[in-house]
# Entry
Amino acid sequence: MKKIGILAIVIAIAALGFTSALAEVTTETNTASGTISAPTVSSAEIEKTKENTEIITGYGKDYFVCMGKAISVREDAFISGLSAFNSSTQNAYAIRKTSLISAWNSSDDRNVIQKAVNDAEKTFKDTRSAAEKNWSSVQKKTSEDFNVSKTACIKLSTAIKPTTSASTQQSLLEMIKQLQAQIKELQAKLTAPKPATTIAPASTTTQTTVGTTETR
# Structure
């Protein structure tokens, strides 16, 4: 399990788009104790891991294609629904215009005209309300259908079997082992106790002169 976890980390790094920075590059860490060099990662190996990112993400090319189709269906449904809403709304205004003009030309009786105007307004509001409800329904259903399609795309991609060859996995594992060994070596050097420094005592010189003894 630890090996799989480490392998996933290496593949994730490659998938994030660092191929140009990692390809054919040897990383060196300089310390007071020496230099630790990581093994070179070839661009070919990185491309292999990049192509198989579904091992850790579950999202391969089939997922992206599936999602593209699902989004296309969703947007078409929104466009169609909005077009229907706009058409209904425009038609409601056109009918109201005709009804109001007819109301004001239908009679000289103010009460008759007012009733016709009220009827025209009620018809307009009802038509608008129906159009808005239909548009809301379209948006809700379209979003729900998209979520269903999205889930199906995820399941489809998750079902894809990893295609990384055994040789590629073994190569990556060997590289990781080398890195781990060198990291341990560096840690050991950094944590090793430093030898104690012994300071030699200062030498003394005794010089004897006539009648005097002097120590230096």
About this structure: Residues 1-57+163-216 form one domain. The chain is about 70% helix and 5% strand.
